[in-house]
Design brief:
It is a single chain. The chain is globular. The strands form 2 sheets. Strands 3-4-6-5 form a 4-stranded antiparallel beta sheet. The protein starts with a helix and ends in an 18-residue tail after the last helix. Helices cover about 45% and strands about 10% of the residues. The longest helix is centred in the N-terminal third of the chain and has 19 residues, at about 1-20. It is an alpha+beta fold. The protein is built from 13 helices and 6 strands. It has 2 domains: about 1-110, no CATH class; about 155-315, Muramoyl-pentapeptide Carboxypeptidase, domain 2.
Length: about 325
């Protein structure tokens, strides 16, 4: 029954997501043509994937630019320069505004209608899929599916994008993977694959420059520990027995509010808390910037991100005898 309900809801979400990607173009008067032209050109950069900022947010922020000195100054520079670089600089200022705005959410990339729906929905505490059954789990699934249309997952441990599949993880492979782990500078308790580590350090520095602290709550996880944790929790959506943490390619980050107070990170209950976590500057920064560094979300958990840039599988297996195992045709599960 859940699958039957989920499909029409998902197709409705698809319609709303793609309709929200169309840049709104309010009418302009001749005397306002130059500023309005810049607003339209900047919003169109969202359509070209120069940013994941929702076009309606760009329009609203630039329309009301007089209320923010940084946005207004960047707008005037872009208006004078007439260059793509100045428009991209303006986008960066808008991204910072979005990241630190307590009224925005990572769900806003879905467009205003869907974002308002999911943020305002009366979630039951057990609506996280796969655990104690909640009455609205199908809506949580649809929310995740809609997000995946805009910011796709690239799971390191499953699907055709996987770096390592469960069937490929022999004892020799486990030894190969875990022997490569390197401690995270400044958080030596946690280890990562060296490629993921190098990227994370760069990403952490970039986030810090934007006023966002990326603090790891969990990284490496030995396979025996992952299996024991999964058996204890009993929900594969929350804790996997074959985990990307065990590949050294996943991090769980501390989620904090704009005022620095922590929310209950890494907990799947109540569901309303998981939705609220998406308002965190940490999550919003990652939604907008993490892909530049090769990190991708696990949509069910706002704190969980995985390193798996395109082409990484071959790099990951480069030093293993024989290289990456051959794979046949894979069909991802719906």
């Amino acid at each position: 029954m859940k699958a039957i309900v989920r499909l029409p809801l998902f197709f409705l979400c698809c319609t709303l997501v793609f309709s929200s990607c169309t840049t709104p173009r309010p009418p302009s008067t001749p005397e306002a043509q130059a500023p309005m032209g810049l607003i339209e050109a900047t919003a169109q950069l969202a359509e070209s994937r120069a940013t994941r900022l929702p076009a309606n947010y760009i329009w609203a922020a630039l329309r009301d630019r007089g209320q923010d000195a940084d946005i207004n100054a960047a707008f005037e520079r872009a208006l004078a320069d007439h260059t793509r670089e100045s428009k991209l600089a303006l986008l960066r200022v808008l991204e910072l505004k979005f990241i630190h705005d307590p009224k925005t959410s990572g769900l806003d990339i879905l467009g205003p209608e869907l974002s308002q729906h999911f943020r305002g929905f009366k979630w039951h505490e057990n609506d996280f899929p796969g655990g104690p059954e909640g009455p609205n789990e199908q809506f949580a699934d649809v929310m995740v599916d809609a997000l995946d249309l805009v910011l796709p997952e690239r799971r390191a441990n499953s699907t055709r994008d996987a770096v390592v599949l469960r069937a490929e993880a022999t004892n020799a492979v486990w030894e190969y993977m875990t022997n490569k782990w390197v401690a995270v500078p400044g958080q030596e308790r946690w280890k990562l694959n060296p490629h993921a580590l190098e990227s994370f350090v760069r990403m952490r520095e970039a986030a810090k420059a934007d006023g966002v602290d990326l603090i790891i709550l969990s990284a490496h996880r030995y396979p025996q520990v992952a299996a024991a944790n999964a058996a204890r929790v009993g929900n594969p959506n929350a804790v996997a027995s074959f985990s990307s943490h065990s590949l050294g390619l996943a991090i769980s980050l501390q989620i904090s509010n704009r005022d620095g107070s922590r929310v209950n990170a890494a907990s799947t209950r109540p569901m309303s808390e998981l939705v609220r976590m998406r308002e965190s500057p940490v999550h919003k920064w990652l939604v907008l910037r993490a892909e530049e560094f090769g990190w991708y979300p696990y949509q069910n958990e706002p704190w969980h991100w995985e390193y798996n840039p395109r082409g990484f599988r071959e790099i990951f297996w480069a030093d293993f005898p024989g290289g990456a195992p051959m794979r046949g045709i894979m069909v991802d599960e719906p």
